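Milestone M4 deliverable, item 7.
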Amino acid sequence: MRMLTLVAFLAAACAGMPVASAQQVPATPAEVAQPGGKIPGAPKLALVKVADGFHDPVGVTAANDGSGRIFVVERAGRVRVVDKSGKALPEPFIDLTNFNPLGTDVQTGFVEQGLWSVAFHPKFKDNGYVYVHYASLPFNGASIIARVTVDPKSPNQVTKEQFTKSVKVLMNIPQPYYNHYGGMIAFGPDGKLYIGKGDAGWEGDPLNAGQNLNVLWGKLLRIDVDADDDTPYTIPKDNPFAKADKPQLMSLFGITEQGFTVNKIGSRPEIWAYGLRNPYMFHFDQKSGDLFIADVGQNHWEEINYQPASSKGGENYGWKFNEGSYCHPAMSADQKCPIVGVLPVAEYPHPESFENGTKADNGGCSSQGLGVANYGGLNKTYMVGDWCSGRLFGVAWDDSAKKWQMQEFMQTQLQFTAGSVDADGTVLAVNCYCFYTEDKGPDRNPAGALWRILPADKVPAGAELAKAK
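Output delivered:
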């Protein structure tokens, strides 16, 4: 059995990972959960349709401003409003498809490009600040993160004029390839903005971005957006690499070897965690503050990473040295290689789980995190939907067995793309039919929908449920 190397163990410890706690980060591959487990207290679940008619919905969130509104992100560049009654309003909340001379500001040439995410400032009710993350057409597909201000006189629509007048660009991150953007942005319990950035594309991380601290790709970023209008953002002082590249005089002696390890010349201070391939979705547990990251895998394994609320950041999740708890490239189950950094808490296979042709029938191809459930018998359970197979998984710590469990709740006909939690903590999910290599375009694919994950015995009478495969 492959064990964590001493270096990896110390790296985890230095990153603030607890060696022993109620929920333990796996120390060996044997401790990483795979499908087939049972989450204690988990009820039978159902996916209840809230609204439909969305074009390539790839993100969803709630404003948490007391309005009960849900905001669905359409890949083409629109954000739609679903009111508290479940009605999708006809006019977009934000529309980036018609506000410059090119027509659209959003690059959608490949299915992984588009508008991915919208996030509301923790004080949105007072300041009206909304943040978007998208692939920019004028900037050749670069990632743009920008803030706009909602006019209180027009709470359900940011007009073209209001967008242009109020927009503040925070980040413009070049993208060398057209895939592996990541995409989600979200505010953490600490009020900082977290940004999922993929390894910038192609396959196999040819740029070595995941392990390179000098680039923003292959990372989870953390910034402070509460800066003055002339400053895009500031670096939180407690970011793990905030001072790693500070100007200093060279000194040959008098510093311990451990002291030199904090010196990361050229490292980017925005980095919170690294070694990620394509962290398209990540979510904080509203109950505990713990963080789960659904990192989309390559050809053979999908992984779910975990960071306890006590973490000081700096975790290395292993890409491209490892794919889940296995080697990369994943040749066979008995292949030997070091485990780099922190192991995932759960993983599931693709139909071909290794290069040697090993087959699996309980997985999928792309893990889409949906949110953390704390209701109906579920406790701190991370819900994950697979984009290809339509499977709905839950990942949770089993305190009695002292291990992580991964349970498959159902296999649907849905193509899961994203999720979040409603104002009351209910997990939401959206699905599209945005075919990977046969994409018809974000406005021409079959329409997707918004769903709620509920205990089966709490489904309202007459509700429409997701169909099983």
